[in-house]
Amino acid sequence: MNDSTQTQSSVEVDAVSRKSSDIAGQTVSIRVSPNSYFIALLLGSFFSAFLFYLESDAAGVALFCFAWILVPFFALNDRIVFDGKRLTRSGIVPRVWSWLHGSRRSLKLSDIEQIETAAVRALKRGGNVYYRYRTAIRGKGIQISFSSGGEDYRRMITSILPRVAENVLDARSTELRDHLADPKETLLKATIENIPSADVLQNATRGARTNALIIPHELNEAEAERADRLRELANQLRLNGYLRQSLEAFRRALVIKPHDGRLLFEFARCLQSFAGAEHSGRLERKSIAAMRLAEMRAKDDGDLLERLGEAYFQAGEWRRSAAAFQKALDRAGEGFRSARGLAEIALREGKIAHVIHHFSTANRLAETPSLRRWTRGEADYFARLNDDDEYMEMEVGRVSLLETFERSKKTALRLTFLGFPAIFIGILFNDEMIANVGWAISAVTLLIWTGLNISIRMFSARIPYELMDQED
Question: Which of 186, 183, 162 is nearest to 173 (CA)?
């Protein structure tokens, strides 16, 4: 690529970046995840067909029209709007629900307690993985969720995440805040840096190394800038699912800065994502080894050690996670994320007294009222569990019941699908008995499945401790 082409491409990238910055200051909105509406559509379609089978044509037509006209209309008008100060559900259904139950449908930025993002591998094509991100924002007893799928999601992330406290965000939300970019812009940058396509890199990534044995040398300004540019590009490629190209960008950056602890950590995160996409235990072990190497290079970087602790926890390495959090406390002093991480580890180990202690420490270190409110609520909840055997028994029973409901829901759904072949066979061969059996199985199990979903929502909330006082 010649100099003029590089200059032109750089100008295009800068123009797109400026456009994204301008959008971040405007009112933005995104459509709510349509999962609930899809369920309502499918249930309405099934039971309308069932009513037609029972020759209740008027009821079947009414239910069919509701499912295929009103439900899509409600789904298209249900949006989340952010005006710079608060998030609001603006659809007809949330308005009616809020009016009937007196519940909230908006959340101020200052009231946000947690923001968590889950990533799902929606599709794998060639050497690239297409991720679908789902971000959940919680606070004051409500949750507002939205999913990726276009420019609206990037605009929402760009507008909200930089305005909230660092400790409100989980690890993946932090990465999205810092590195989420338009895929076209990211691929343009990769072209400028001469990063080959995923197909070309298919064999190269099999031997990915951390370059830990490269002898460091004093960097000049140009090399340092290139390493930082490659690191940023690698993170953007990873979040957009271009994992092979991301690994190559990290490899080139590590050639320049082989002993940079944070760069090694981000490389390990990319390798971990690649291992999951390839279902490779060998690559998973390599990612853990890269994290351990990053831990050795972390020195007194408390923030990096906390991130490592969270990454170990996510990978199921509980002992190493606890060690990383403890190292962060020893080297950098008390930190909110370390205290919260140690509380989560203690909870997995069943050490309730340690959970209370660490959440109390996190409460003392929290920098915002919303975080103080959340950590105080967690500490109080586990303190009540520890002090009141009857309350603990009730909560254990509630959690066990939820697990039973989840298992029963899966069983009911399987039975529903087993009834469909009987319906088709009965209709195809005009066998009324087989069709009746199929309709009965599917209708009953779908009703049970719907009831279990409602029960799970009802029992997912913790039992208020005030009920114990009222009973006394």
Answer: 162
